[in-house]
Amino acid sequence: MRRGRVNEISTFGYQFTIAGVQRGRPDLPLVLYESPVYRTATMRPLSKMGRAPRSKAVGPSIGGVAVSPGVPRATQDPSTLVPAWQEQYACATVSKTFDFDLEPGTYDLYIAFDILNREGGWVHRSSGYLTDVTVGAAHRTRVDGVIGTGPGGEREVELSGATLLSERVSDGAGGP
Asked: Mean pLDDT over all residues of the chain?
């Protein structure tokens, strides 16, 4: 985003989600984690932004009333809604690990980084999935993945593999 060009803000917020579906139960999607919605921009009246309305020189008209070249015409007035960038929400950190308590079975897992567009709708910016993840009774399953920013500011969201660990999970008795 370049400052001073109000029409260049296109991301108005973002959210990160981890979800899963247990095989044999497609009607019961599991939202395992959902971050808050971080609003990176809002629409505000130009008068509240401390900027003067913009005008531009209008050239010759085709098929209408002619406007003298070089005569400025207002394209915004004080009530025009313009994006206001909220710098404090430009970047958020994500935990290095997440723990979920799932019943034994086979799962398809999904992660997504979604952005909120100017019109208020959600768009997948990047996503990843992993199928056939086995969760065993009294065992831990580790799912490896990447969530971050790659070269050139490109978002990386990927699930790369799952391992059913040999360590047993205690039932909570007899320990701190």
From this structure: 78
